[in-house]
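Re: NAI structure - here you go.
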Amino acid sequence: MGLVSIAVSEGIAWVEINNPPVNATSTQLRHELLLAVNEVQGCRRAVLSCAGRSFIAGGDMSEFDQPPQEPHLPDVVDAIEQSDTPFLALLHGNVLGGGLEIAMACAWRIAAPGTRFGLPEVNVGLIPGAGGSQRAPRLLGWELAADMACSGKLLSTDTMLEHGGIDLIADDLMQAAKDFDAPRPTPVSQRDTPLLDADWLTEKRATLIGRSRGQQSPLLNLDALSWAITPFAEGQKKERALHLELRQSNESKALRHVFFAERAVTRPTALRDITAATLNNIVVIGGGLMGSGIAAACLLKGMNVALCERDAAGVERARETLTRLLDGARQRGKISQSRFDQLLADCTIAEGYSAAANADLVIEAVFEELSVKQNVMAELDQIAAPHTLLATNTSYLNPEEIFAPVRDRSRCLGLHFFSPAHIMKLVEVVALTDGSTETLASAFAFARSLGKLPVQAGICDGFIGNRILAAYRRAAEYLLADGALPQEIDAAMRAYGLAMGPFEAQDMSGLQIAEANRRRQDADRPANERYVTLGDQLCEMGRFGQRAGAGWYRYEGRKPLPDSAVTTLIEDYSQQQSITRRSFSATEIQTLLLAVMANEGARIVEEGIAQSDAAVDLVKVHGYGFPRWRGGPMQAAQALGNSKIQEALAALEESSPNSWRRARRFT
Ligand code: NAI
């Protein structure tokens, strides 16, 4: 045995699991645990605990793609529950998935303060596979079981104790186990479930449908829970069958793909052996929406921050914006009132860039104008110490040009945050040709220490995310000209699982941004590329979007409503272009727009702008509301199949010739 050790003393068997990092229930562990259950027979009691920072925090996800190996987890769990020697579980850290299933099979549970309990299978598109959905309602009631299984919520020790999920909270688990004395209770699987209220179930289902944007696993978890009204063995059998079926589902594969991408992409192997500098003194230049957001993100992680503006009025505005953002964090319960006061007092907000002399990292977030940014860099080149890293938050400008005034460009890079910067997790880390790997490694470490997900991007118009967005919007506008309406396209993409469709999203951010992008690209646009002028026409009419009260939609408050004036504008446009309008089904719209995103993503990978498909997917899921349960456009395209993508691209090329370049993999 290697992962499980047993020491018997005074009739008590102390069973300890040691399978770092999180004691996952791998095949080997299940095997050893089952042997241990046999071995402790004859003892008065067995005490089950885990070494390291946590109790069992789930299954070994790397095994999920393979056929399940014996012994299966339900066998181990049942053996523990049915063991003549009763088990006492000592819990600390995270007790998740299979960990909670094992804990619920023990006769008693004692937890250290701060232990967290959950059935997060739903987060990877699964339901529990070892009786979790059947024991949780019996142990904790429907509401808490649903919180865990359907919403992936974690429960605290206090909640668990209050609802009888654990027997005791103790600082010293070992001592508590020695002192513990209670008669063996009825096994959880043999207890009655509380009465299941049909109205509660209907309401829960409706809430989950409203929230899950097409993801199936929250609802399937609710189904599985409801089986707990049948005899345990029956419910468990159905649970296991569905669990195994879901392991093969596209949804689970997609969610696991994102889970792994979040870990792999944000820690590139090429940077693994490079020493990263600790960046703790941060100077942000430009205290607008983005600069203040970045400053707030750094402050909330305890870094030293100075926010620099160009004049006194700018300082005042920056202070207001930063105060508003931090106050939001206070209202959401992220920080206390005193911490809020402290952070504001600690943050230097000043005119001019002198603070840059003591910075580890300077992040520029001034206006999106090359000359303004270059002037900032020319000054920083004089002020900042040689070791100070210089970053730009530009969305579209070429960082190589922004940093032209800097003599040593090995310390320069792009750090493209997303709005609101203190909340959104994505950061595109843009590498310069002359940039050093140390700079890159330090930037990755910095972004991770902010709790962000850094993704490396090369230089092109819009980097990874905005470049795909531009292609997607262009294709959506072609659809308008060819016969679809904004509300049809938006509804189709929402039904696909996106938070918003392309036109309502444009209305929200303001049409002038998209217009400015089109204007900027005018010079590079091939003469024979199809260009739909509808967006420009709306801008000429002053319909700049939600804030202007009208855009692709008309507005009642914030609610977008289809506008007959826009319909007429679109129909007239088609007529002027001699286009016979035709209808598009939701599936056709979804497939076409997915194909465009995947094609642009594939080109970005082929050009070396993104390091992998997973990097593209992470950007779209975390920066652009692409449904996580579809795994990102690359994963979704793969699930749909290359031939469908190629078909959609061919249709697009026919209606819009000379306007698309196909990625090699889709030719
Ligand atoms: P903003 O207009 O809200 O803020 C710019 C701020 O920079 C203003 O407060 C202005 O007073 C200040 N500023 C201008 N020139 C300055 C100078 N020479 N020295 C010091 N401060 C100066 O703009 P926003 O939206 O914050 O954007 C800033 C940068 O971030 C731009 O490059 C933009 O492309 C980029 N970005 C914007 C995103 C967004 O969603 N708004 C998302 C990601 C990047």
